[in-house]
Amino acid sequence: MKYVPSIAFDEMSGSAKGVTAAKTRGRKYIRNRGYGGAARTSYQASVKSVFKQLSQAWQNLTNEQMLAWHAAANSAQGRSVLGTKSKISGSNLFSRLNFWVVTAGGSVMTTPPALTGVAAPAAATVALSASAMTFTLDSIPDSVTNLKLVILASEPQSNGVNRAYSKAAAFTSLQTPVATAINIKTDYDKKNGTPTVGNPKVFFRYFYINTTTGEKSADMYASAKLSA
């Protein structure tokens, strides 16, 4: 909760005891101090490690290599090579493509790859019960070479929540696309806890990545509700 301070606190800033004094858009306020959680999942630790590696790798590039990445970023604009069509810089393209390559077990690319785009996955059906949670794609590409499926999921949500795709986060390893059901219950429960009658809904976001170029498809969405 935020409180507007009196003139006595006009120059106050920072945290003390259980409160924090701050200033936003010229307006000063005092709010309850937030401490954040100290716990970090293994996935969060691995993501941090990959980005640290990529940050150092970018600094070690030659000037010619950096210019090549900037040129590739300019030509990539308007193409869904990252699942979006936003304007990006060379360093951003380097990090975003290499993140998936390294996460999939590959080596950092020092020169930009040829970008061709990745088609989005088919619709998916998620079966959720007290004893099972499976993820099944309606279909898969004729060739899944260099293709991995990334599945993100929200924590269990209440019946009143109808859209929580933005809360979806990684909880399992990269999956090879298959036409059969993928059992995700163990990984999901370990990361997010087991869905209950009070919180029976789970929202999913999923996409494909190319493990050799780091390209990402557009996001697809699915949801499931705990069945009896």
Q: What does this molecule look like?
A:
- This protein is an alpha+beta fold and 228 residues long.
- The chain has three domains: 2-32, no CATH class; 42-103, no CATH class; 124-225, Immunoglobulin-like (Sandwich), CATH 2.60.40.
- 24% of the residues lie in helices and 24% in strands.
- It is built from four helices and eleven strands; from the N terminus they run E-E-E-E-H-H-H-E-E-E-E-E-H-E-E.
- The chain has helices at 42-59, 63-76, 90-103, 185-192; strands spanning 2-3, 14-16, 19-24, 27-32, 124-128, 133-137, 147-153, 169-170, 182-183, 201-210, 220-225.
- Strands 1-4-3-2 form a four-stranded antiparallel β-sheet, with no helix packed on it.
- A hairpin with a 4-residue loop joins strand 5 (124-128) and strand 6.
- The longest helix has 18 residues, at 42-59.
- The chain is elongated and about 60 Å long.
- 23% of the residues are buried.
- The model is unreliable at 1-15 and 32-40 (pLDDT under 50).
Compact overview of the structure:
This protein is of the alpha+beta class and 228 residues long. It has helices at residues 42-59, 63-76, 90-103, 185-192, and strands spanning 2-3, 14-16, 19-24, 27-32, 124-128, 133-137, 147-153, 169-170, 182-183, 201-210, 220-225. It folds into 3 domains: 2-32, no CATH class; 42-103, no CATH class; 124-225, Immunoglobulin-like, CATH 2.60.40.
